[in-house]
Amino acid sequence: MSDKKDSRPCHHCKSKSASAPADTSRIHYEQFWLFRHCSSLQQRDRQAQRAGQLFSGLLAMNVVFLGSAFISSMIFNKVAITLADVWILLSILKVLCLFWIIYYLLGTSRQPHAVLYRDSHAGAIWIRGSVLLFGSCSILLNVFQIGYSTILVHCKSRVEIVFPSIGILFICTQAYFLWHHSKDCIQVQHNFTRCGLMLTIATNLLLWLLAVTNDTLHIEIESQLREVERRFAGKAPSPHPHCCNDTTLCTCPNMTICKVFQKGYILLYPFNTEYCLVCCSVLYVMWKNVGRRISHHHIPHTKPKFKLQGVVFGPLLGTSAVIVGACVFMMYQIQATSLVPSRQVFVIYYSYYIVLLPVMSAGAVIGTIIHALEKKELDTLKNPTRSLDVVLLMGAALGQIGMSYFSIVALVATDPRDLLNSLALSYSVLIIFQNITQNVFVIDGLHRRRITPPGKEEDTKEEQNGEAYSQRRVSVLELGQEIRKASLSYIHTYSNLSWKRRVLREISFFLVLCNIILWVMPTFGAHPIFENGMERSFYGYSTWFVIVNFGLPLGVFYRMHSVGGLLEVYVTA
């Protein structure tokens, strides 16, 4: 009878055999028309996604090359291509980006089923806060530029008033767009959205490139004026070929408001470069999320919150580093901006770094060792935000590492036995080591899975298994014994890991505060790597200007981005 029952071709038995692992090898799914249709749709979707990414990437590449050609021509041939021509090109790009952003806000995002998924990892609060902070500073920068150009309208072009006016509108609209829609995984108008995002990324990259080159010109003019003042004071001028340019044709008259505009413009200029880089990173994540479908198990049920629990030594040591660094920075600003910078202020500045950088490196190495001892599972889920964080950390670190290697070659080739040269040499070596160790610590921490506290894990297990317990009708006594056994085993494991987690939190918080002060000092004008004159005399005035002004903004961006990565490591520890 059993053989006959087994041989019956009943529908129930077919469904069982289809679900059993042993019989799945007998079923040829590729012959089923529905499977072929679904697989072809998936393949078409992937091909369309790759084609859209390729086309939008080519669009951005061509825009960046065109803008770079304009900016390079302005630098090397100021007669044919002027700064006004570059501003006109960037104004056109800004207007196009504004039209697309407004269309996205009023049209694309409001369509039915447009935003079915939102990436919880994208658009962290510190990223969006940075967009608002740097965007506000960039708006003030444009206001100062408008006021300064209005006062000097007799010797300046009207384009210098129109360009920052369009810039204010562009910054406000883009900041609103990124604050509210940075987490979107748009499901409609894929290709048009990708092209709009890539056009906006290319525009921000060109604005960053122009800001870097303009910052170079501002520092060069300031150095030239300092050389002129030294000549009037009877001092020997520096032997660079750019000391005799006519830079005083359009100077600020003796008015208080004009001086305020000029100083505010110079002070806020670095924030504009940071704003462009942060916007590029957020827009790139949005571009990667276009058409992305997020499954429910990828969405975290509980978001980690920032709490100052169990950390004592990290905040104390970090606060001490910030206070000492602020004092050193104020001393440096007072002494280094004078006509004859004191040699002692450079010694104090380098000594501060030489003391702080080894402590930061040691903390990062200890944190990396603890990560290895913890044996937590690696988070291997696809995460565009984390992938971009890793790329930005590695790429931005190249700025400081590259400048340090150039400094090492110059200092070793000249006179490494001199006190100031030896301090600068030690500073360059320690910068390289600190950047590498901190990158390893942060990247390793970003790929570690978060440990759920015992109470939350038990609550989650009870919620998930509540129906199973009710179906099995387990008695209250047996259920209590099972929970007690599971709790004792987890508490035993948790107690072994608790000291490691405390050390990780202490190290992360200490590194956060240290990176903040190391971000503040170069952002607000502490540039001893240029102002000490050693590398400048070795490589030449123009060459060292190019090296510093491409490496310095990347170094500032690296410190700011490291703060965000370390905060995430602290929260998820």
From TrEMBL:
Q: Name one GO molecular function term.
A: proton channel activity
UniProt keywords (A-Z) are: Cell membrane, Hydrogen ion transport, Ion channel, Ion transport, Membrane, Transmembrane, Transmembrane helix, Transport
| Subcellular location(s) per record | Cell membrane
| Pfam families linked to this entry | Otopetrin
Its record classes its membrane topology as: Multi-pass membrane protein
- The UniProt entry's coiled-coil ranges are none
TM spans (from-to): 54-75, 87-106, 126-149, 161-179, 191-211, 266-287, 308-334, 346-370, 390-413, 425-446, 507-526, 538-558
| A single cellular component GO annotation | plasma membrane
* Protein name per the record: OTOP3 protein
Taxonomic lineage is: Eukaryota, Metazoa, Chordata, Craniata, Vertebrata
